[in-house]
Amino acid sequence: MEIRTILLQTRTTVERNLISKYNTPGPRYTSYPTVPYWDIKGFNIEGWNDSVRQSFKQDDQGISIYIHLPYCESLCTFCGCNKRITKNHSVEAPYIDALIREWQQYLSLFSTVPRIQEIHLGGGTPTFFSSDNLSRLISAISDSAEILPNATLGLEGHPNSTTLEQLKTLRTLGFNRVSYGIQCFDPKVQLAINRVQTIDQVKAITDISRSLNYSSINYDIIYGLPHQTLQSIDLTVHEVIKLRPDRIAFYSYAHVPWIKGNGQRKFTEADLPNASDKLELYTLGKQKLLDAGYIEIGMDHFALPSDTLSTSYHEGRLHRNFMGYTEDHSRLMIGLGVSAISDSWFGFAQNVKSVEDYLAHIHNGESAVFRGHLLTEEDLMIREHILDLMCHFQTNIPELSQQPDILDRLAEPLRDNLIALDDDQIRITSEGRPFLRNICMAFDLRLWADQPQTQLFSMTV
Ligand SMILES: C[S@@+](CC[C@H](N)C(=O)[O-])C[C@H]1O[C@@H](n2cnc3c(N)ncnc32)[C@H](O)[C@@H]1O
Ligand code: SF4
User: Fold this and answer.
1) What is the CATH number of domain 377-449?
2) Which ligand 2 atom is the nearest neighbour of the CA of 124?
3) What are the percentages of helix, strand and coil residues in the chain, rounded to 5?
């Protein structure tokens, strides 16, 4: 379908009005409560460790481990992740040593040998690290645990810096998933974000990953980047479809200028598409992905029908955590490394954000956790509702009879046809999907009890 035809079909006055009404700062709900609303004063390490012990005992699925590897060789100026830019690879070994020691701290909390259902290497750029160092890290974990036969082991790789040797080493250690940051193939956008990578580079690393039998390959692409136009999205999605990754995360660019470290930005706010243009970029990309046979999963993910993310979505097993959407439902996720967040279902805990502080804490035999939140019964109830909305686009009404404020806040989205009432369910309509974060905000009791005075979150559109 022509870009212009799609544009005319989608850009209605009604939609523009909806955008101006609902485009507000809002959380992405990778947790509830969201990080700025954690009750830090009510948190302590003993309570956190107890919640880990409790969750470990109740666990019947196996635990998940997220490992944050913060280094990158060069700075992409759009990036909102916690990263450290360096070309000095001598930083690798001490960081891996610290991760192994932190894992040992957690091992001391477990009453039996842990069974691992998932390991995810995130960053930063995990493929900054040599094969030997990655191997040392994973071996230290697997030697002290049981990796379940159906475990999902994945890594985030930068297409420009991932090597055959790294992929082979990790494959031998049981890794079966890889995610590549693509962002956008338009050369003008790539220049603006300081991230030049060619389609050929991406194709080459994808072919290598497939030849090694990585069973699920994901691409991250972003809409709303500086200088991005409908043509940029058309080109990017067209090329992505040709390479046919199993999954695609189609992220909204989160403009978070208050995140430090992106000072060398080569673009200004005037170079960013406005909210209405941004929604058009999304609509075009989404339509092309659907036409190519991808299935829309949750808020910003797409997967081929054969991928396990699609099957778990259809079977109602989808889950959302700090890593985004996942089909694994383990209730205990241990986060290792600088800035990593752990989730015991009953609590959250985040590690210190600077590499130096992290290394110092671990070196001194202390926990690297610097803040967290222990969930109340009410938090747990709201968490379930928000997870249901984010993962299944619906949630139960009956429990909400005790929450008149939430029902009041849903009246306007109901009038605007963003949600519908089916028996005892609230369902997000197709018109409402771009505003999913806004619907979740209606449930966010902590946000309403203490409205932010400064901007804490990126815009919802
Ligand atoms: C850790 S990076 C991926 C691995 C590797 N460092 C790379 O860049 O290829 C995680 C992903 O977060 C997404 N991301 C980072 N900053 C973002 C932002 N400000 N808005 C939306 N997505 C962002 C990008 O799509 C990126 O691929
Ligand atoms: S997008 Fe990836 S490579 Fe670029 S700075 Fe962020 S984490 Fe590093």
Assistant:
1) 1.10.10.920
2) 7
3) 45, 20, 35
